[in-house]
Amino acid sequence: FMMHERDMVNDPINMTKLSINCYHSAIVECANQQLRNTLQQLRNEAEQFQYELFQVAEQKGYYSPAPTAKAEDIQQVKNGLNVMQMK
């Protein structure tokens, strides 16, 4: 089995995104502030690593980000979130 370069870039991106979600879950459940700070630092480092991998994938044409949202679509989402916060 031979792994293609595209897979060698995309697999770590996906694994890192999964670890970021795990860090988030642990952070919101953590009562110990020192542990919480450590988890937040690890999450921040994982986010930076994921972004660097994303940049490599994007430069090589392995990953295409979603198209830029229109201003009215962004405002509609903001309005919806504001309504949800008021409830």
Secondary-structure element sequence? HHH
Overall structural class, as computed from helix and strand content, comes to mainly alpha
- What is the 3D shape? flat
Question: Helical residue percent?
Answer: over 70%
Report Rg. Answer: 17 Å
User: Number of helical segments?
Assistant: 3
Instruction: Give the tally of β-strands.
Output: 0
- Oligomeric status of the shown chains? single chain
Q: How big a fraction of the residues is strand?
A: under 5%
Sheet bearing the most strands, described?
none
Distance between the termini: 54 Å
The chain-level mean pLDDT equals: 90
Question: Spans of 5+ residues with little confidence (pLDDT < 50)?
Answer: none
Architecture blueprint of SSEs:
Elements: H1 5-29, H2 33-59, H3 71-86
Helix pairs in contact: 1-2
Brief summary of the model shown:
The protein is an all-alpha fold and 87 residues long. It has helices spanning 5-29, 33-59, 71-86.
